[in-house]
Amino acid sequence: MALKRILISNIGLPCKQIGSWTNHYNKFLNEHNDFFDFVLSPTESENSQFLFCKKRNWPKGSRFFENMARQKWVFKDYLETLKKIINKTDMFKLVVIDDIVLLKAIVESGLSKKENVELIFDFWGFRFKAEKSVFDQVSKVFFMGYANYLATIEENHAFSPEVIILPVGVDNDHFFTVPKTIKSELRSKYMISEGDLVISWLANDRPEKGIDIFVKAAEKILEVQNDISVLIIGSKKKINTTNPKIINVGRVAHSDVPKYLQLSDVLFLTTLMKEGGPLALAEAYKCGNYVLVPKRGNMKQLYKDLEGVAFVEYPNIVSDWVNTFFKFQNEIKKYKPEGSKLKDTFPYEGWRDGLLNAL
Fold this sequence. Notes:
By secondary structure, this protein is α/β, with parallel strands linked by helices. The protein is built from 15 helices and 13 strands. Residues 184-314 form the Glycosyl transferase family domain.
């Protein structure tokens, strides 16, 4: 029997947007283009390997017939495509990325019960909950850290899959520190004063990412100290501020993210939810930023022993971000990490090798 690997995503691959796991898989699929025999997603680059499958909107009233809606409408493309691919003569490894409802639909379809099918879940959040009937059909779950794994088993009465830890990884070819001269050149493009300390925020503008908390904290900091510039990266939302030192650069391509982080000095990760291991945080850290981060989720485990990190105890309270910044301001100004040391922190290769070994 030949082994066939199938990658299943509700986000189009390859992906051009700022993302977390999408960046990992973009690079992996480019470097190992024949590792997965099929990639099912709402792709813009459809061919014999990358097959177009789209997650459809839930029909009205579907809460009364969820199982049927999952099978016959929401995940119809995925299930029909899988049924065409999966035969009786080969072995199949199905890897579902970060969509527990899609995973459940595959289980309910009966595909995972076939003797020649192994179902694997690649989870990129903090924790999730599912029925025992789902876990019984999943052979492995990939987590970003031990805190995520432990939180998930606490959430579920029974959890039977094998667990593999695939840590956060960042591409050293794109995210790295730059010399002062290049940093100055990058700043001049945005008319940022040479002597300013640059505070950055990088995320999408969902409320739970804390953009409103960040803007209020930035305004409070600028009331006290004016030799600071603030960059908001990734938000399409109109920023309610009249302070010209707060610059909203909007949504940017992932390939442009490094230059913004390289001109920055400190990143505020104002997330208001427990996260598995935000890629933006690791990317900023690799670019030499001091980071302010909530003391919750997997982040306190990932960053507890690193230099250049300050934990915020109460992330929903604006004054806690302001006070933490001023408490560590001198340390932030002195923080000049060696790029060679940062290369060994959160390496992409660790995640890549873990994935290759797991599959």
